[in-house]
């Protein structure tokens, strides 16, 4: 099975000149965690991750402490919001280098890329680099599990089974 068989074709993306504020609006409105960044020809040039945007307001001490289990809440820091200057920055200032697979890639390659780059979503590109889809870790994993050919009714002892 190819990644093009399971990818979502309706991909929300932004340009490198879009602001962080515009990206935040998309993250919230579409309830997504990855925004592919494209150029004017819709070629993938970067990726903006929700986690990277959240890092913009994360207190420095969180990056220095390995074990946060003892912290119940962060007090006044919990209500910290990004400044207008941060929200006005372009996505190009925060985006990561693009990670993608071509639409002809197999599912195991997609899983390997998701795992290797610790991603939840993987942009899918055509041969010319144009963004044509996106697939989540769950999309790819579920498709692989279905390809194993194990019937749903063969194992109903798991939690939630009938």
Task: Record keyword descriptors for this entry.
single chain, 162 residues, alpha/beta, CBS-domain, three-stranded mixed sheet, 6 helices, 30% helix, 16% strand
Describe the fold and architecture.
This protein is an alpha/beta fold and 162 residues long. It has one domain: CBS-domain (Roll). The protein contains 6 helices and 6 strands. Strands 1-2-3 form a 3-stranded mixed beta sheet.
Topology:
Layout: E1 14-15, H1 20-30, E2 34-38, E3 44-49, H2 50-55, H3 60-64, H4 84-88, E4 101-102, H5 107-116, E5 121-125, E6 131-136, H6 137-147
Parallel strand pairs: 1-2, 4-5
Antiparallel strand pairs: 2-3, 5-6
Helix pairs in contact: 5-6
Q: Overall mean pLDDT score?
A: 87
**Beta-strand content:** 15-25%
Spatial separation of the terminal alpha carbons: 30 Å
CATH fold name: CBS-domain
Which architecture name does CATH use? Roll
Rg: 19 Å
* Superfamily (CATH H level) name: CBS-domain
How many H/I helical runs? 6
How many domains in all? 1
> What overall geometry do the principal axes of the alpha carbons give?
globular
Number of strands: 6
As a percent range, the share of helical residues equals 25-40%
Please outline the major beta sheet: 3 strands, mixed
Strand order of the largest sheet: 1-2-3
Which structural class fits the helix and strand makeup? alpha/beta
Q: Tell me the series of helices and strands, N- to C-terminal.
A: EHEEHHHEHEEH
Enumerate the spans where pLDDT stays under 50 for 5 or more consecutive residues. Answer: none
CATH class category name: Alpha Beta
